[in-house]
Amino acid sequence: MSQLYLAQPEQQQQLEWLNGGTLGMLLDGKASDGQLMIGRFDVSEGEAPPYHLHTREDEVFLLLKGTALVWYDDQEYELAEGGIVFLPKNVAHSYRITSKKADLLMINTPAGIEGMFREAGRDRSTPRPEGFSIKPDPAAAERYGSVIVGPPR
To answer: Quick one: pLDDT at residue 134?
Structure first.
């Protein structure tokens, strides 16, 4: 049963992500009865996940600040500050941040993929293990319905 969920910024989980970026977990499946996951990336130039597709969820990116290149089914597009892109499931896609910094809102429906981010990332409220690094893990991605189809673009 859905009910009110309210989390102030200090209550939102912050994960260390690729290339030293941060992924803030704003809303997850537990809070939305499995319907929605919303995350906010604070990332730097060059941040790019592997070329991949989702088998379970559709994805939306809203670029709050910065610029990026987006690949969708092998087509390349530029995404300007304030731009939005809808990425339906089962179609390969990726992005690469082209500005010095970017603030990117990610929305997935239904929820579930947050498990992959939590498994691969590191909760910033815990001590950082020596030598820690985040590496794309095809097996972990697949457990959460994502398939890595190629290297970052």
So the answer is: 86
DSSP character for 120? H
Contact status, residue 40 vs residue 23, Cβ threshold 8 Å: yes
* Tokens of residue 53, six digits: 């597709």
**DSSP-based helix, strand, coil % in the chain, nearest 5:** 10, 45, 45
Would you call 73 exposed, middle or buried from its count of C-beta atoms within 10 A (0-12, 13-18, 19+)?
exposed
At residue 90, the 3 state secondary structure works out as: coil
Whether residue 116 contacts residue 78, with contact meaning beta carbons closer than 8 Å, is answered with no
Tell how strand 84-87 and strand 58-65 pair up.
antiparallel
Residue-wise pLDDT for 42-80, tens only, equals 999 999 999 999 999 999 999 999 999 999 998 999 999
d(CA 48, CA 85): 16
CB atoms within 10 A of CB 79: 21
